[in-house]
C-alpha cells in the first residue's frame, strides 16, 4: 500500500461518493479536486457545473477560480450567470452541491462570512458567493473540510448557508424541500447525519485514525455510529490520478507569466 | 450611440464623483484597464457594485475611492481574502465603507431585473441564512398564486457599467464570448455603458448568429485597450495570469507595499501598458 496524506485520503474519499449519474455544482478548492478525481477515475460521465455558467466541464488542470478559461473550453455549454442560478440551480436541475467551509457546526450549517460580530468582525471572510442558494436548491449537499477545533465549532458565528439548522425537521419547517447536508468528509473520517436528530455522526474512520484524533480536532462532542467502519485506503490509481492532477495544476499556474 | 474614445475620455465623460458604478466580469473579461483609469482620475465617493469585487475593487477601496460596496463574494478567487477591503471594513482604513451583502444568485438576478426594467428581483433564496438579518434590502414577498414566500431585493440600476469585451465592429457593436457572466445584464441595467475591447473589426459577418452582442445603440463609449482585462483573461486572446492573482495576496497585505505598487503600476502609467502585460499569456 502506498503512503498517502490525510488530505489525499479526504479528497479521494470525497471523490468516491460521486457517480456518473450525478449533476454536481462544484465549489472551488477541495470540492473541485474531489469532483475531478471522480471524473478521471470511476465517474467519467459525471456532470460538473461551476457557478461561472460552465455546464459539463472536464478541465485538464484544476481551475484556480470558478471561471478559468479551461472550464469554458472543456464544457458542453456555457450559460450566463443569471441563467445558471435561475434555470439550473433554482430550477432544481442539480443533484449535488459540493461545498467547503470556514466554520461548520454539527448540523451542517456553514459560515464563510465573518468571525465575530457581523458589523464589527474580528475577521472578515469572503462571504457566501453562491452558497446560500446552493445549500437549499441542490438535491443534497456534500461538505468537505480539514478537521480543526477552530473550524468545527459548537456554534458558528454566522449562518452563511443553512444546513439542518437546529436539527430535526428544521429544514421542512422553513419550507425547504431538499435534503441538505447528507455527507461530511474530513481528513480523518466520514460523517453522516443521524436520521432523526440530523447531527453529524462518524460512520467511518480513515486508516490509522483513532477516536481521540477525531475528538481532539472537533469543537463538539463527537458521536459515533454503532457499526463504525474503516475507510478503505486509497488505491494506487486513485492516488496517481490525484497527484498527476495536482502536478499538472501546479505547473499550469506557475507557468502563467 | 457608441462613440470611439480614448480610455481617458471614456472614463472622464461617463464616471463622476458619487456615482453608483458596476465594473463587471465573472473571472473572465474583468475591466482592469478601465478601473485603473478611474483610479488615475481620482474619482471619489463611489458606490461599487459587483458580484465578486476581487482585485480591482480591492485597489479602488485601498485608494479610498469607495463609500459603499454592494457585493456577494469579497475574495480573491481561489487565493483568499481581499486584504484592502478587509482593512477598510475591520479598521476603517483608508476610510470607512458601507457594505451591502447579497448572495451570487441575488446579485445576478438584481442585474437581470434592472435590465428588464423591473424594480425588484424575486427568487427562492436566503432560506435559513443570516444575510437578511444584516441587509435591510433583503425582504420577502408572497406569491399571489401559490402563497409561497419568496425573497425580494431591489434591482440594480447603476449610473454606469464598465465591461471588457473581445471586439467591437466599426459601428461600435460589441461582441462577448466565453464565460459571459452578468455583463449583458449589467450593461442593459445601467444608464451609461463603457466598453473596452481588444480590437475593432469591420463587421461581425459570418459569425455564429447566437453570439452575445450588445448593439452600438446600447453603449455610450468604446475604447480599444489591448490586454485591458489583465490579469483576468480574454477568451481567444490571452489566458488568466493566475500568478499575478497569487502575488496580489502579498502586495495587498501591506499598506506601504500596496501604495508603492499602485504608484508604479497604475498612477505612473497609462492604458498602453496592458498590451505588454499579456504578451506570452
Outline of this structure?
Chain A is built from eight helices and 14 strands. Chain A is of the alpha/beta class and 257 residues long.
Mind explaining what this structure looks like?
Chain A is 29% helix and 21% strand. Chain A has 257 residues and is of the alpha/beta class. Chain A has a single domain, classed as 3-Layer(aba) Sandwich (Glutaconate Coenzyme A-transferase), CATH 3.40.1080. In chain B, 31% of the residues lie in helices and 25% in strands. Chain B has one domain: Glutaconate Coenzyme A-transferase. The mean pLDDT of chain B is 96. In chain B, helix 3 packs across helix 4 and helix 5 packs across helix 7. In chain B, strand 9 and strand 10 form a beta hairpin. In chain B, strands 1, 2, 3, 4, 7, 11, 12, 13, 14 and 15 form a 10-stranded mixed sheet that branches. Chains A and B meet through helix 3, helix 4, strand 9, helix 5 and helix 8 of A and strand 6, helix 4, helix 5 and helix 8 of B.
Number of strands of chain A: 14
**Measured on Cα atoms, how large is the radius of gyration of chain B?**
19 Å
What fold name goes in the CATH topology slot of chain A?
A: Glutaconate Coenzyme A-transferase
With strands numbered from the N-terminus, the spatial order across the biggest sheet of chain A is 4-3-2-1-5-10-11-12-13-14
Principal-axes geometry of chain B comes out as globular
CATH-derived topology of chain B: Glutaconate Coenzyme A-transferase
Q: Spans of chain A with pLDDT under 50 lasting ≥5 residues?
A: none
Largest sheet of chain B: 10 strands, mixed
Topology:
The complex is a heterodimer of chains A (257) and B (281).
Chain A: H1 6-16, E1 23-26, H2 30-40, E2 47-50, E3 54-55, H3 69-73, E4 77-78, H4 81-90, E5 96-99, E6 103-104, E7 110-111, E8 114-116, E9 121-124, H5 131-137, E10 140-144, H6 170-173, E11 181-185, E12 189-193, E13 200-205, H7 211-216, E14 224-230, H8 236-255
Parallel strand pairs in A: 1-2, 1-5, 5-10, 10-11, 13-14
Antiparallel strand pairs in A: 2-3, 3-4, 6-7, 8-9, 11-12, 12-13
Chain B: E1 3-4, H1 7-14, E2 20-23, H2 32-40, E3 46-50, H3 54-62, E4 66-71, E5 75-76, E6 80-81, H4 83-91, E7 98-101, H5 104-115, E8 120-123, H6 131-134, E9 139-142, E10 149-154, E11 160-169, E12 174-176, H7 183-189, E13 192-201, E14 212-214, E15 221-224, H8 242-251, H9 255-267, H10 273-277
Parallel strand pairs in B: 1-15, 2-3, 2-11, 3-4, 4-7, 11-13, 13-15
Antiparallel strand pairs in B: 5-6, 8-10, 9-10, 11-12, 12-14
Helix pairs in contact in B: 1-2, 2-3, 3-4, 5-7
